[in-house]
Amino acid sequence: xxxxxxxxxxxxxxxxxxxxxxxxxxxxxxxxxxxxxxxxxxxxxxxxxxxxxxxxxxxxxxxxxxxxxxxxxxxxxxxxxxxxxxxxxxxxxxxxxxxxxxxxxxxxxxxxxxxxxxxxxxxxxxxxxxxxxxxxxxxxxxxxxxxxxxxxxxxxxxxxxxxxxxxxxxxxxxxxxxxxxxxxxxxxxxxxxxxxxxxxxxxxxxxxxxxxxxxxxxxxxxxxxxxxxxxxxxxxxxxxxxxxxxxxxxxxxxxxxxxxxxxxxxxxxxxxxxxxxxxxxx
Length: 282
Prior knowledge:
With 282 residues, this protein is an all-alpha fold. Helices cover 73% and strands 2% of the residues. The chain has a two-stranded antiparallel sheet with strand order 1-2. The longest helix is centred in the last third of the chain and has 45 residues, at 181-225. Residues 1-9 have low confidence and may be disordered.
């Protein structure tokens, strides 16, 4: 027999809450700030993995017949380098490495969403950790932190490409251009307001887009998993839900592979575009 509606509902609520709860620690008892240990852990793991793989591939690179890893990395580097040359009009040499780093890091963190829903959280519960969320990009702290780093880099590229006076002077002279000192002074407040809005929207759009897509993807995997929660496979309807669950899981996994790749590409591409906008002169 399957579980009753009340039992299943309670089990579903507890199950979903368990999978959407972070492993946290308060930096100070009673303080507002808490640290998401699982997010920090997986972010550091993929950062170290990224450096080991790319540095190792660079040291073992050969001008002869390349291996599979070297071919994959060279294709990625050439692809990003071509986009940067077509999009970025400045001279900064940071743009291509930053774009590659962002794409790979976001993709690796997104990829954790394709692991079985209960694999690592169940293991964490058995070893006494209680909770564990494996998708770092489903944490708004991660995506906002990355977006803020891009925001600071935008300011840095703008200042280095144009100079301090020209860069901040554009805050008061664009997008509404005017001739004459009186007209420029009159339009300066409107230009400054629009520039502040533009600068604030960039990190918000970058962070919320990635966070929303990955959080929704993670939640859908959890909802698919609860289709047979509490069932003992002794009723015909349960087998039907099991088949539905298997089909939905395969379909969503295939679609989600496209999502995680596309979101990594969008984050990296928008970074290049924003840096190009910061470097171009009005």
